[in-house]
Amino acid sequence: MPRPRALLSWSSGxxxxxxxxxxxxxxxxxxxxxxxxxxxxxxxxxMHGVRGELLRAQARALDLPLFEVGLPWxxxxxxxxxxxxxxxxxxxxxxxxxxxxxxxxFLEDIxxxxxxxxxxxxxxxxxxLFGRDTRALARAMIDGGLEAxxxxxxxxxxxxxxxxxxxxxxxxxxLPEGIDPCGENGExxxxxxxxxxxxxxxxVKRGERHDDGRFQYTDFLPA
Length: 223
Description:
Blueprint: E1 5-9, H1 14-26, E2 30-39, E3 44-45, H2 52-62, E4 66-71, H3 77-95, E5 99-101, H4 108-119, E6 124-126, H5 134-143, E7 147-154, H6 169-174, E8 188-194, E9 204-211, E10 215-222
Parallel strand pairs: 1-2, 1-5, 2-4, 5-6
Antiparallel strand pairs: 2-3, 7-8, 7-10, 9-10
């Protein structure tokens, strides 16, 4: 019997990568592509600040089609919902997908918003990691061979000096009290450079740090 066809919401970061790893291991869904929104004016993944060329390198390492949705900047919530919704509707018709997989961990309001958004298109949302203990999950990612670096830090929640660091056991040990180990409250965002399902490790080099007044970004480039 054919498996349901699914798109995976890909952020370039660790949560979406580990979600894909678990979905592939379970084998219940046929993941036919990655779905990502970008700031079209600078060709970077929104919030994560990851260059589009590294995003595409990840897709090549996964041997999966990447479907990009360019967003204006600034982008209102209404524009986001319209543009992402139009793209998902086209992909549903073109690819025959019935499910969209998300890497959300515990934010109920975000989950409800996604459920409403994709449900209105006749698609079923899937949240494989939702409700997991994030401290145990972060350790499982690292122990399981996922490698990532912090590409963005919200300096209103976490010291900007963490930007650019490896997401590893040492970092988890140094996170202040109240900071989620997976950054689910937006404390930090990551760029995945290696994972169990990657065909090879991404070679990246650390570029300059920059901030926009609140967020401290580290610019990673292809090595």
